[in-house]
Amino acid sequence: MQKVFQYIEDHADMYIDWLIEACNQPSVSAQNRGMTDMKEVLKKFLGNIGADVEELATKGYPIIYGELGQGKAKTLTFYNHYDVQPEDPLDQWLSEPFKAEIRDGRIFARGSADNKGNLMARICAIHAYQQVIGELPINVKFVFEGEEEVGSPHLEFFANEHPDKLQTDGIIWEGGTRGAEDKRLHVGLGVKGICYVELICKGAKNDLHSSEAAIIENPAWRLIWALATLKNEQEEILIKGFYDDIASLSETDKKIIGTMAYDEEAIKKLYAINGFLKDVSGDALKERLTAEPTCTICGIESGYTGEGSKTVLPSLAKVKLDFRLVPYQTPDKIAKLLRDHLEQNGFEDIEIIPSHGGYPFNTNPNDPFVKVVLQSVDDVYEEPPVILRNLAGSSPMYKMLRGTNIPAVQIGVANSQSNYHAPNENIFIDDYIQGIKVTAAVIKNFNNYLYNQRSEIL
Amino acid sequence: MQKVFQYIEDHADMYIDWLIEACNQPSVSAQNRGMTDMKEVLKKFLGNIGADVEELATKGYPIIYGELGQGKAKTLTFYNHYDVQPEDPLDQWLSEPFKAEIRDGRIFARGSADNKGNLMARICAIHAYQQVIGELPINVKFVFEGEEEVGSPHLEFFANEHPDKLQTDGIIWEGGTRGAEDKRLHVGLGVKGICYVELICKGAKNDLHSSEAAIIENPAWRLIWALATLKNEQEEILIKGFYDDIASLSETDKKIIGTMAYDEEAIKKLYAINGFLKDVSGDALKERLTAEPTCTICGIESGYTGEGSKTVLPSLAKVKLDFRLVPYQTPDKIAKLLRDHLEQNGFEDIEIIPSHGGYPFNTNPNDPFVKVVLQSVDDVYEEPPVILRNLAGSSPMYKMLRGTNIPAVQIGVANSQSNYHAPNENIFIDDYIQGIKVTAAVIKNFNNYLYNQRSEIL
Predict the structure, then answer these.
(1) CA distance A315 to A293
(2) Residues A148, A415 contacting (CB under 8 angstroms)
(3) Contact B422 A203 (CB under 8 A)
């Protein structure tokens, strides 16, 4: 493999250019910007490595599906997504979000971390392997979806309609990072679930002069009071039954969580905060991050929010709420409990608009595929990786994998300073190059995959 | 006076054109749009009726001051403002806010009701009087300020720096209306005070991925919890000491409030609401509207509020709060009580940005100037007026009048469907013409002003 690694280093500039090309193409699924052009960029890169590419239609944006090396004994799948989050607030970006800029050893661009960096690293790894060694020893499948940032509404449709294309022996999932100061790579075995909703409260049919607030109901106040019943200052979520289905952590879970890297001082400095929620630190912090559900206000808006003052009684108030779920919570049940809660607390007039939901997902840490990935990480990185029971974020893994026993592992090129979903998203160039190498190593080590061992641990 | 009234009716189209010219000139003080051009419009109209016009500099927008008929025994002052509220939300306007449009007997334009309609009615009345009768029997002063919609920060400066220009025997204030179905004119004797502030809560230095909400504080939640401590669902304001200084209503106050017109069914239909706050109606509703203080969310904003979903942990949350005050609450004390309240409830990190404040103001209902105005209303309108102890809205009256014993009365051309501060602001053309007539009647009746009676009742 050293020759492949050497080739990757020698051609780093080319692989960086490929990534820049991918990042410079906007592809904001929430706003339908650049999605068609982005597909063409993907098809070109997949075509260049000899993949057979298909555009699998869905009711939304299509899945770009590729296959390479048909006929080998084992199959490895790469799941990635080609859409990105909206780039606002634009005024906080130091360079154009869709014009990648290299500063201080990093590439700054919307999508560089989430997750065009990973997507391109997979493609570049295969390219390098082919250039140095030739034909791949395994089959490779690519599942590149265009709706991950809006909750992957059609990924389940893909899994149901194309069971042959879903069939695989292991999946490298998108979304991996490493720590900021502690540079060990994170190997993720799962994700939290999510239930994302918008609550809407309506008042008079249009905004009124605020003097009328003496006698006319204010939907902003009603929404505030409703929200205050959902979670208290001790961060306890007050929805009846919310915690009922949560599995307590196993000893293995706790052991994995305990080994997780989290440089509290570095994060505090990075985010300019004095401390963490509820003053947690150490193992308690790691457990909150990976194993506690959340209820988060992602956005709230009512009335006049511009410059200066305006004496207005708003006619509408809206809030976007994001619940992160842990095994075995489900988004459907949480949405129902929320509806019940609002009704029981006298807020039956508040409308719930479901946005997207996702189940939690965890791969068994003893699966031999996990060992393949760990071996590959050892081949490339100086330090041993950190194994995460699950990431704090969510992912549509369950939509492809629920009902199968396919193992999925997350490794990637981002780091904890990558500003996911925020201004100045970026990755380190070094991480990108390492990410190409580790993908190449997985392809090679996959032949050592102890397939027969799987039945023992499932 | 019938000749003057006839002249006004015969020249209605011209006076409407004058108003349209004034409305079509934007003059948004909060955003510094069109203010300079608006001054020139005023100077032209005041010049046309022979007034000596001065631009009185302040640290903000100047006061356009005019005098007419120097040397007469008595002086009447017209206070108006030439600035208007911002016009958003623009998408709810049926015609351009700054391109006045006549539909169904109404003039639709930002500022038509608040208060270019009143301002122009005063000028037109003098014009008509001059054309028909000639020289005015009284001195007239015009105080047209440009900062009413941002809290009149420099009107007190005017009163202090120009005591000679302030000197007068009575003021016709801006802001009058009539009911929607019950068409009786409202004669207002005062206003509520106001304390308008912005609260700001800060979290991490930039927006983060919402998965981090498990361990990083969310300023939106903190602001929600803080707001929920300010007012409960029973509409009780929970700030300690908030109600302490309020004067209980006198029997005269209650009597005036009881005679107030309020067509509850019409308002419910107009605003598309099922009922009023706390299910009040009748005298209880009128007392809430005129004599109860309020705490109103005029605007709140945090995180992502655009289309679609964005999984973000906000770094900032802001709310605009408007307290309406009644005698003898003061904005300074309310702001201090709010600061104390936040600190006592563990929200010392929430910053208070003062925006503007105003004291409540009430003219003695027995003042003979009130009788002059009531007589003039009788001369023009078929039905007797409704006398309001005070309007539900606020006004900078106290800034000119505190420490003097000058009586001030509000009459005007708007109605309860005028959409003050909201989209599709409008007045009826008929009300505008009547407003010109009643102003002319006040000028005439002012000679019957029983000046000597004033000392008896003060």
Answers:
(1) 32
(2) no
(3) no
pLDDT single digits (tens) A33-65: 999 999 999 999 999 999 999 999 999 999 999
Query: How far apart, in whole angstroms, are the C-alpha atoms of residue B451 and residue B443?
Result: 15
All residues of chain B having their beta carbon less than 8 Å from the beta carbon of residue A216 are 271, 273, 276-277
Which token pair is A362? 């965890």
Query: Which segments of chain A have a pLDDT < 70?
Result: 448-458
Compute the distance between CA of residue A161 and CA of residue A349 in angstroms, rounded to an integer: 39
pLDDT at B165: 96
Which of B211, B292, B297 is the closest to A220 by Cβ? B297
One-letter amino acid for residue A359 of the chain: Y
For residue A455, what pLDDT is reported? 40
**CA-wise closest residue to A63 among A176, A148, A138, A130:** A148
Strands A312-313 and A208-209: antiparallel
**pLDDT of the residue at A454:** 41
Residue A24, token pair as written in the block: 């410079």
How far lies B182's CA from each of A204, B178, B270, B416, B419, in Å? 21, 8, 14, 10, 17
Q: Which tokens belong to A248?
A: 């307590």
Domain boundaries, chain A: 2-189+363-457, 192-246+293-358
Residues of B in contact with A300 (CB under 8 A): 220, 224, 300-303, 305, 317
Chain B residues in contact with A192 (beta carbon < 8 A): 211
ipTM above 0.85, yes or no: no
Tens of pLDDT, residues B331-350? 999 999 999 999 999 999 99
> What are the chain A neighbours of B392 within 8 Å (beta carbons)?
211-212, 214
- Number of other CB atoms surrounding residue A337 within 10 Å: 19
Q: By CA distance, what is A303's nearest residue in B? A: B299
- Taking CB atoms and an 8 Å cutoff, what residues of chain B touch A422? 206-209, 312
Matching residue, tokens 């004291």: B359
Percent helix, strand and coil across chain B, each to the nearest 5 = 40, 25, 40
- Please tell me the predicted confidence (pLDDT) of residue A392: 74
**Contact criterion met (CB < 8 Å) for B300 and A301:** yes
Centre a 10 Å sphere on the Cβ of residue B432 and count the other Cβ atoms it contains: 24
CATH architecture under which domain A192-246+293-358 falls: 2-Layer Sandwich (3.30)
Q: Is the pLDDT of residue B403 over 80?
A: no
User: Rg of chain A over CA atoms, in angstroms?
Assistant: 23
Contact (CB, 8 A) for B355 and B198: yes
Of all residues in chain B, the percent with pLDDT exceeding 70 is: 98
- Higher-pLDDT residue of A119 and B189 is A119
Residue from B114, B262, B309 to probe the interface with A (highest A Cβ count within 10 Å):
B309
Q: What is the CATH superfamily name and number for domain B2-189+363-457?
A: Zn peptidases (3.40.630.10)
**pLDDT > 90? residue B27:** yes
Kindly report the average pLDDT of chain B as a whole number.
Answer: 93
C-beta atoms surrounding A161 within 10 Å: 14
Q: Which residues have C-beta within 8 Å of that of residue A92, sequence separation ≥ 6?
A: A423, A424, B206
B193-246+293-358 in CATH: which number?
Answer: 3.30.70.360
Q: How far is A293 from chain B (nearest CA, A)?
A: 7
Token duo for residue A59: 């009711």
Buried b (16+ CB within 10 A) or exposed e, A395-416: bbbbbbbeeeebbbbbbbbbbb
Q: What is the mean pLDDT of residues B280-297?
A: 94
Share of chain B above pLDDT 90, in %: 76
Give the distance from residue B365's alpha carbon to the nearest chain A alpha carbon, in angstroms: 22
Is the pLDDT at B448 greater than 70? The verdict is: no
User: pLDDT tens digits for B64-94?
Assistant: 999 998 889 899 999 999 999 999 899 999 9
Please tell me the predicted confidence (pLDDT) of residue A458: 35
CB contact under 8 A, B307 and A30: yes
